[in-house]
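Fold it.
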Amino acid sequence: MEKRIALDLRVSFHEKRGIARYLINFTREFFSLKPGGFELLLLAPQPHVKEFPSIFSINKEIGVVALPETPIWHWEQFLLPLWCRNNKVDLLHMVTNRGPIINWGFRKTHVVHDTIGLHQKKWKGGIFKAFLSSTYNRLTIPLSARIADQIITVSNFSKNLILQDLRIPETKVHVIYNGVDTLFFTPDPACINKFRLRTNGFVFHLGFLEPRKNTRRVVEAYGRISPKLRDQFPLVIAGLSEMAQEVFLPLIKNLNLEQNTILLPYVSDKELAGLYSSCAVFVWPSLWEGFGLPVIEAMAAGAPVITSNTTSLPEVAGDAALLVNPESVDEITDATVLLLEQQNLRRELSLKGMKRARLFQWSKTVEETVKVWRDVLNF
């Protein structure tokens, strides 16, 4: 008899990065592999169920259970667990760092990507929303982790923080790395022709308004390279909303970089792969990551990578990237100049990166997660 596993899809309809990318790729790969003995029940808010086929690129015949869309605290603490109990679910698999904080009579596994929610002092949104988000995370992340049967995390760095911050037994925490979507290994540079960028002719960064993503220092570092290099290699920042662009435009103008900086909105995965494969260097000096998907996605597409020497990023990048202190604009500048001036080094890192990226496969993520489910369910 198949074991019934419930999976919460809610986050995938509200954002396109981070945990949402994990959830989309995990779900897609699960139905591709079809591991025996499990029925995966997909739960989503009613207004978003129709978006499932386009977001997940999965056969439309796969059903999604529609539940009322309620506030996140009600969804996670009452609606989901009540549905699971009433529908005889064997195990609830949560991927958003949190889960129910009381026992509802079924097994639970949680993916805790990081504990940033316990440390971060600045939040997106207004003061009241920030207070509610912070309070909810600080309450539910530790409590739900302690009552979960097993915890999955995405790096040894995150595992160490989980043990330190959440005070749960080490035997309860499993490191299972993220994977790389196969489309990043076969990029199509032609799909970015509309951006009118020269192949191997630009510095690329994925931009975020969130301070820990360090976009401001990337712009400052680019402003310190020589005008000659800037004319040869413009800075391309993708993924910025209109609001984010308005935040960074004054900095770009103050540094006289308007003629050398191109701001792009959110791009599709195909366009992102094309940008990775066509750039001279991908600069990603994040201040804090639980894993760092953009690093291995860029490597898969052949981009030479500059990333941080802190948190999970050295673990993910290995020796296939230049590592810098993300708080040092000088180090980011020096690494960027080094790669722009040394084509042989760029080629060497590109080859190392593509080899490194092949170590991270979503099929492994699914297979190892299923093994955890089997252990929890004695199945």
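Residues 50 and 64 are 9 Å apart (CA to CA).
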